[in-house]
Amino acid sequence: MSAENIWTIACVQMDVQLGQPEKNTLNIIHQLETAARKGARLIVFPECAITGYSFASRQQALAVATPLDSPHIQAIQEACTRLNVFAVVGTAEKNGETLYNTAVLLGPSGLVDRYRKTHLPWMGLDRFTTAGTEPYRVVDLGGLRLGILICYDGSFPETCRALTVLGADLVVLPTNWPEGAICVVKLLVAARALENHIFHAVCNRVGEEGGFHFLGRSRIANPGGEYIAISEDDQPDILIASIDPTLARDKHLVRVPGQHEISRMADRRPDLYGPLTNPALVPPKPSSWIPPA
């Protein structure tokens, strides 16, 4: 690693109180301070860390959802300014009467970006939210090119690949993985890093909420698909890893010069991938997944 390129990143594996944004915001700021003391410049929190996730109704979620200019987000942003760090924080976002599952990217100078979850499972908050429709994008934090997804988005390989094509060095994935998602934890994180030759940081929550037990087991993988920071349990923790973003940029892997060389970007065949974007080949959702009018 070249010292001038190094970014220290953190995943804060924490419990969240459903419908208690004030308490959660105070905890987030406390964890932000702790991670910053450990040298982290980018700190990732779980999905819906501000509001909680397992709402029983749309009305319950709307009552505590945060607009982007909410005092809770403002307080976290002010902490980022004071600590000179960036943070990715999940929340139920209220935009008029529309609900989104959102991750905000905050930095020393204010709100940098926000990402609205594009793939919605039939679970918790996502039963009542609107899917994001904006194109995927990568933000340059000043030497680190960052892409953001949320939880179920990571189960679709096209999402990480799109961010990779756009130049991401690191893709972060705030999650609320419950019991039943253990295979996703074990298999997909390393696979997404390896197949795209990127750093991949997944921050899951812990605790009990709405009848769900959340798995923890956050992890950070390098472009070779190896874990450089990992939790193997469901207890609060802060994972720290130092990464060199430039290692994710050279996709040309030379294993035996002139005999075994690959590039998972240059070797792609986009001319053959048309079926991936053909709506006629997408089966409809089961009617049981469609909420009543």
Question: Topology of this structure?
Answer:
Blueprint: E1 7-13, H1 21-37, E2 42-44, H2 58-64, H3 71-83, E3 86-95, E4 98-107, E5 110-116, E6 138-140, E7 145-148, H4 157-165, E8 170-175, H5 182-196, E9 199-204, E10 206-209, E11 212-215, E12 219-221, E13 227-230, E14 237-243, E15 252-256, E16 260-263
Parallel strand pairs: 1-2, 2-3, 7-8, 8-9
Antiparallel strand pairs: 1-14, 3-4, 4-5, 6-7, 9-12, 10-11, 12-13, 15-16
Helix pairs in contact: 1-3
Polypeptide structure, described:
With 293 residues, this protein is an alpha/beta fold. It has one domain (3-289): Carbon-nitrogen hydrolase (Nitrilase/N-carbamoyl-D-aminoacid amidohydrolase), CATH 3.60.110. It has five helices and 16 strands. It has a six-stranded mixed sheet. A six-stranded mixed sheet has the order 6-7-8-9-12-13, with helices on one face. Strands 10-11 form a two-stranded antiparallel sheet. Helix 1 runs parallel beside helix 3 (71-83). The chain is globular. The termini are far apart.
What's the quick description here?
This protein has 293 residues and is of the alpha/beta class.
